[in-house]
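User: I'll paste a sequence; please echo it back and then give the predicted structure.

Assistant: Echoing your sequence first, then the prediction.
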Amino acid sequence: MAGWAVKIQHLGRRHTFSLGNPDREAAAIEAKAIYETILAEGWDAALNNEKNHTGFPKTDARYWQEQLLLRRYRFPAANETENAFAARISHAGNSYFFPLGTADLAEAARLASGIYCTIVKQGWESTSSLFPRELIVAFEWSANPIMWTYTTVHTLVGRLAHGETEAAAASTDLHRVVIVETEPGLRRALQWCINRQTGFCAVPCEMPETFAPLAAASKPKLVLFNRSLAERMGIEFSGGLTTLPSGALALAYSVSLDGDHMFVSTPGGAEGYMLKRLPPANILDPVLQAGKLNTASGEDPLTPVKLFFKTLLRPRASQTTDALAKLTPRENEVLLLLSKGCVDKEIAQAMGISVWTVHGHIKKIFERLNVRTRTEAVIRYLEK
């Protein structure tokens, strides 16, 4: 049977795309994906996607068998095994990691293909309500110096949405933490994290417009809110842990695809940068450094946070210094440029070397510092 093709015209340009799947419905999904890619990313992106190295269309599970990943960090609420696969799925300018919940290669590839087809047919919003995504949540304790903690979560949707996210909120012995987040899956994940922190219970707030009456009724000790919702909540957010008129502490968080994206999102121009990964069930540890969360003492709320980071840096300082001392001058120069947010091409131009030589230096830096990502390498450099 002959394959399908589609001719697309946009902004005065026309091109015929061969569609790899002989099935009519799957071919229609391919055509729609190509058109949406052109609209979102331009003709070059669509033409480059056409030349994928597998030879299979993204609607075919065989394409995804070569794209499957084993992610380093797990989210306990998802109950995944250590060898369960994930896939990074991109479409029309958006990209996310999707945990697939199985170690079976064929099944994981089939699931990834199904998620991709759902994205194309129903859109990202609908897909996000049906399938869990891996996200990095960064808690912005201080703006200058930058003091952030971050953790990996999976959005709790589908069967995971019915897991244990509620705590005994009626108990007077628990400190309430209001979570202001409009995306249900992420809100449930943060609820799970808070409810695993001894002495705390989460109070979900679905809309920032309902925050004020909910806070008045629940009298929280702490408010966690998505940074993008601050204005709608009536909070003048300038970065860092702050105290609300009610006396409650308010802490913003930002959401990223992965650690590298998180680092790029940190504000520039700060005096110092301290970023620390925490387990999902320990996200409140920085304010519990003194043994409790006290919002009524008049003490600077950042005092326990500063103590938390200071304690962390003590055992790492000598190790980091020793590892950095092993770097060559050229490797130090590459790491300095990485810390300034430069990409490989910019580093190559600044140093007068090829991009491939930059890659070689970065590989050596990873080996000497015992890290796996550029973000981890930069964090080690900034900790010195």
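The mean pLDDT is 87. The first strand starts at residue 4 and ends at 10.
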